[in-house]
Protein: Aspartokinase
Amino acid sequence: MKFGGTSMAGTERIRRVANIVRAQAARGDQVAVVVSAMAGETDRLVNFCREANPLYDPAEYDVVVASGEQVTSGLLALTLQALGCKARSWLGWQLPIHTIEAHAKARVESIDSDALIASMEAGEIAVIPGFQGLSADNRVTTLGRGGSDTSAVAVAAAIKADRCDIYTDVDGVYTTDPRIVAKAKKQKAVTYEEMLELASVGAKVLQTRSVGLAMKEGVRVQVLSSFIGEGAPPADDLPGTMIVSDEEMDELVEKGLMERQLVTGIAHDKNEAKIILTRVPDRPGAVANIFEPLAAASINVDMIIQNVGRDKGETDVTFTVPQSDLARAQALLEDRRGEIGFNRIITDSKIAKISVVGVGMKSHAGVASSMFRALSDRGINIQAISTSEIKISVMIDEDETELAVRVLHTAYGLDAQD
Ligand code: ADP
Ligand code: ASP
Ligand code: MG
Structure:
């Protein structure tokens, strides 16, 4: 069972969580619980680091930001004990949860689960702070923002759990962010592949890496709400959204429990920034000269367009990077201006990426063209396009994000009937 930040925000909410955990244990299950820091706490801690030292050392940043989850894991253990349950917390270094050394974006390598399993078998509810781990040189690491989802899936895989229930502040995975589109529909099931793609293009209900790990390890994941009343159905009845394999999805469709959909979901991402390099030489090697230094600095480039060549053998190159890496990317490119040979760098952080995802696209034409038409009918200009087998993304002006998501939700027939 994993509980996110909103579910853990304050002692009153932690008591609700403890009741949900107690009810699950009362069904005769051995339970491990992974918790997030209280909502807003990690942001607060990140700001302290920035204030202390704008060029902070990621290893010390991890020491600071991992503390939010230490607090909530202890508080949940205390609350469970107050309800008469046996409960024990296990910090990342105590298990330990081994990760690679990449501070602030570490990846779980393995979990020593023996002590954990022994404690669960002895009837204790194990409470584990999400987001944190331990590097080979015994320093605290964190798994990147939203990383408690990945902690939960990793723990579930390590203890061979029957299911990993991700409790959050919405009751499942919707066709789009239900906070933006009131008519978004809850999905009974979504395939791993679609969820992976949706998460990677901005549907933050699950951290992308958690979905990849669940897919690789075959962990059964359910997304459901922790804001439930007394008479709510138990998690075992699967009231939320199940992440399923393609085969399971086919079965659900055959049984008439799911409709075969062309588009499963729409996501948006406002965290990218656009860079345009003007008058780059139009010859072999020019683009490699731009992207090699960015790759060497671990800056992820997402959308790329090389505009049609101008005269005199020159062209403009446009691409996106995470907003948080924009200043670094700009500095790196400026340093190599001579080598790359461009005229100007133009940057823009006021962009958004809107993506439409669905496995149905593999076998159906026309999904892209209806996207472009629906946006143009509302006067929304497309600045760049990128696609994968099951996804189409467009870059637009940030101010038009909500409008674009709503328009596409309607255009693909996803609006819930009231
Ligand atoms: P937690 O703190 O529990 O980890 P998050 O805030 O990380 O919760 O994720 C839950 C949020 O994800 C929801 O409140 C919702 O606004 C957002 N969200 C974005 N896309 C979707 C979607 N397709 N379905 C459900 N929720 C979504
Ligand atoms: N507390 C961390 C964050 O806010 C991890 C998480 O909640 O998943 O990013
Ligand atoms: Mg989250």
In short: Residues 4, 146, 149 surround magnesium ion (ligand 3) (CB under 6 Å).
